[in-house]
Amino acid sequence: DISHELRLLDQAISSVRSEIRSLDEKMHDSLMAEERALFSVFLRMLDENALPAEIKELIRDGHWAQGAVRRVIEKHTALFAQMEDDYLRERVSDLKDLGRRILASLQEEDSSHRELSPDSILIGEEISTAALVELPVDNIAAIVTSEGAANSHMVIVARALGIPTVVGVTELPVNTLDDAEMIVDAYQGRVFVNPPRRLRQRYKEIQKEDEQIAKDLKQYETKEAITPDGVSVQLYVNTGLMIDVVRGVQRGAQGVGLYRSEIPFMLRERFPGEEEQRAIYRQQLSHFANKPVVMRTLDIGADKDLPYFSIEEENSALGWRGIRFTLDHPEIFSSQIRAMLKASIGLNNLHILLPMVTTVSEVEEVLYLLERDWIAVQEEEQVKITKPKIGIMVEVPSVLLQIDEFAELVDFFSVGSNDLTQYLLAVDRNNPHVANVYSHFHPSILRALTRLVKECHDHKKPISICGEMAGDPLSAILLMAMGFNTLSMSSSNILRVRKAICHVPMTDAQKLLDDVMKMNNPLIVKSWLEYYFKTHGLADMVKSNRIVNV
Ligand code: PEP
Ligand code: MG
Prior knowledge:
By secondary structure, this protein is an alpha/beta fold. The chain folds into three domains: 111 residues, PtsI, HPr-binding domain (Enzyme I, Chain A, domain 2); 76 residues, Glucose Oxidase, domain 1, CATH 3.50.30; 321 residues, TIM Barrel (Alpha-Beta Barrel). It is built from 23 helices and 13 strands. It has an eight-stranded parallel sheet with strand order 12-11-10-9-8-7-6-13. It has a three-stranded parallel sheet with strand order 1-2-3. A two-stranded antiparallel ribbon has the order 4-5. β4 and β5 form a beta hairpin. α1 crosses α5, α3 crosses α4 and α11 crosses α13. The longest helix has 25 residues. The mean pLDDT is 90. Bound molecules: phosphoenolpyruvate (PEP) and magnesium ion (MG). The site of phosphoenolpyruvate has 10 residues, from β7 and α17.
């Protein structure tokens, strides 16, 4: 009965549409526009001319509605699965999720009332963002998937929601784990099914310690980062998603030291337009009104791929990335700069940071484009816009040797220690085989940074640091001793670093720096710092304490 099947499909599609709209509304306060972009993609797929049109064609050919849904979804997932691009491949799970919803509705199952008791671990081959957020997320203790990659959209959202997540556990027997007792150790990326009593006990202890540490750290939300001998350090937050801003404000960040503008670009299906960007940037700037917000221009290339603009390169870390890419695409750069300038109207807290700068001429070119856009936007908007301060990231070693020349052009410097470590030590930051070589405690890094701070101070140029090194309490203390007075980090590290600063006098930090500057081995440097922390009441900040050997 073709007309009956068509009617059933129409009902199912419209009920899934309203299900997704209500999900979108439900998540309105906890996820911001860019994190919810997936829902509008779903709605577009459900547009009468998209998936429903194809399904109806099959029904008219004689298929029943459920079979037609399955065929259409399978056809599309097969196409996506063949794609080389990771991001697009991962969209397969979203598509399957959408198919399941339509099917569930055709079968009159209500998928929105699944019970989930507190401390549940969510397991699946793949879990889509939509499937995750429709569940009572407060009851989810952890997420484990057998497929997926660490930069998938679901993982980004799970991280933002603070849910420990382990993905890509290839041998996970998903179908046999219902109601099994499990331990998920997202510190180490390990999963234990039906763990023996002793292991359970050990993890219970760790869990208790973690809760105790979190409770203890809470008091640092309202404290200032001042050493016992009175030296004050500014702690800023690194952001990308809106949830980072919310957490940063809650944890008392004094500004945004690095807004990774590529993150909203990554969560979209195409380059966002100028107006769309303006609205995103405005949210960031206005949440930190009266405080500095450092917005980095688009830093794509290498491991930061855009789903709709894949850059395939043999040697991508040394290739077309950061400012090299955007200067070759001045239209993309300009729309971003214009959007940032417009977003800053009346707030005046915008600072612009350039990634992957290697050569002075790159900055000269940017200054020219910026001046041009600044004049144009003021004319168009008929308002005066405060000219933003311009800074560069110190990530490429060449910059270390040309601070004099760069200081004449820019207002501030910010060290990207993640990339600086990668390039100074010639070690891929994402390659697990050489992870033992990658260390920000390497003597050459410490010496380079010490010289850099001094040079910047000589030129009276502010210098901060926004790589992971700033968020590690052990290195944060060294950075403070070197003379960095602004450290910018993920919101999850702010309280730990603040606690360390409140406990370590500057005189001790300087002594530690003197000690480690004489050492030639990163492991010894790290152990020396850990020894100090352990013997000065700061043992709970030493990460290696949390490693469980099984
Ligand atoms: C860095 O390289 O240290 C940095 C902060 O930038 P990203 O991690 O985004 O490359
Ligand atoms: Mg970098």
